[in-house]
Amino acid sequence: MAGKDAMYLGDDITAALATDSSPPSTKLSPADWAKKNLFSSGVNSLLTIVVGLAALALLWFGLNWVISADFEIIRANLRIFMIGQFPKEELWRPWTSAYVLILGAGLTTGALARNSHELDLSQEIESHKEGWGSMLRRFWPVLLVSIFFVSFARTLLPFIGLAGAFALIVVAREIGWRMPAAIRERAIFIGVALFIVSMLVIAGTSRLGGYALGLVAFLWMMSELSRVDSLPKGFAGTLIRSGIALVVAAMVAIIQNLIPHDGFGWENWGGLHISLFTAVVGISLGMPFGILLALGRKSDLPVLKTASVIFIEFVRGVPLISLLLFSNLMLPLFLPIDFERPADLTLAIIVITGFSAAYIAEIVRGGLQAVPKGQTEAAQASGMSAASVQRLIVLPQALRAVIPAMVGQFIALFKDTSLLSIIGILEFLRVSDTSNSQQAFVGKGLASVTYLFVAIGYWAFAYTMSKESRRLEAKLGVGHR
What is the pLDDT of residue 22? Predict the structure, then answer.
């Protein structure tokens, strides 16, 4: 009998342990959630009612304004808002360029997602392929605003083009996911090369494009040659690899420059297209230069440190608008008489790249100071070179720590592209002023319509960058580990 009692007691303990091991349910019904979060006290109930009424009033007046507003100015100038004064007979260029860019983005992101997935699996970390529902939740602002912009079109072509773009990104991402591992390892070079090709489709095969493709060919060849074990190591191997890569890069640049230039040069671009292009180039070039400046400021070499400090402090102490004016009005005076003056957009990109690099350098420097010195000393004691310590130990931790500040600088840079209008570039915000100055719309008070249209465009891309920043922070555990 005692044995049976002990058996029953053991069963009771097992059942109790099983019950206690399962976490309590925290899911609340809508009524309980509202009571807990909105009406938990008298003050909270009053705030909820006041804020709710204000939100309803704002929604009511907003809907009335949208219904009564005259959006004809947007319909008449939609092409200018998007791509500026691009000739109608050349519209195939921006569409083709966009498709090439989407193809590159789909292939690259799909390949990188697969690489990250397999890396997690190799480290026995649970990982799943991201579904399209998750992708929609991530990029819904850009998708929704794209549909909103296209809704003002007067023909079916933009609707068909946007649908084709959505289908292409789906197919390209799947192809990138399924590519062989040997190709996925080179996804970055594929994406950069297709980005340059997409720009050349619009601007034509200029010398700058040839040099850019040559640089991509050089970096790609250096990456490939670094995998070859038959080449000698050390200084001699570096010379051989560099020589082969330079020959390949020169051949690519020469062949590309032999093709006739028949594009629509970027000095004539405009609208949202020029704002996005300038922001992407400024971020892509400013980040590596900013990292180099941050490392230079912490260098023990006096010349390098002094030069980095002077550049950073000068640029950060001067408004961006003054630098743009200087590059446009004063800088050409210092060039030789027989030197061809660069395009306004070329000068603006140089200024914006340097401006963003200076701010990024200070952000990265803060991250470098957050890395414990003991890790650097331990890596050096293990025999790692100074370059390897920075590349493998210090920079990954520093960049991880400054993701919020870095993305904040990227968002600010994107919005600062509105200053391009000061040097005569027809960027996204400037189109609003030119549209209201047209004879058909003068004096009709439609500035609120055009400014709201522009504000929605800026918000969509800025908010998407902010969402991706928070997602990356959560994935890397910033602030948690």
Answer: 46
Rounded to a whole number, what is the largest CA-CA distance in the chain?
111
- List the structure tokens of 428: 């996204």
Contact 246, 301 (CB under 8 A): no
Please tell me the chain's helix, strand, coil percentages from 3-state DSSP, rounded to the nearest 5: 80, 0, 20
φ, ψ at 156 (rounded to 5°): -85, -15
Rounded to an integer, what is the distance from CA 448 to the centroid of its chain?
29
Annotated domain spans of the chain: 266-481
Q: Which residues pair with 476 in a beta bridge?
A: none
Rounded to whole angstroms, the Cα distance separating 24 from 14 reads: 18
Q: Do the Cβ atoms of 445 and 435 come closer than 8 Å?
A: no
Buried b (16+ CB within 10 A) or exposed e, 440-463: ebeeeebeebbeebbeebbebbbe
Rounded Cα distance between 355 and 123, Å, is: 40
- Tell me the CA distances in angstroms from 284 to 135, 184, 325, one per residue in order: 23, 21, 23
Helix (H) or strand (E) holding 70: none
Average pLDDT over residues 158-173: 90
Other CB atoms within a 10 A radius of the CB of residue 276 amount to: 16
- Whole-model pTM over 0.70: yes
Let me know if 111 is exposed, middle or buried by CB neighbors in 10 A (0-12, 13-18, 19+): buried
For 431-453, how does the pLDDT look when each residue is reduced to its tens digit (9 = 90+)? 998 888 888 888 888 888 899 99
Q: Considering the domain 266-481, what is its CATH architecture?
A: Orthogonal Bundle (1.10)
Which of 231, 230, 78, 49 lies closest to 157, judged by CA? 78
Q: What angle do CA 471, 475, 480 make, to 5 degrees?
A: 105
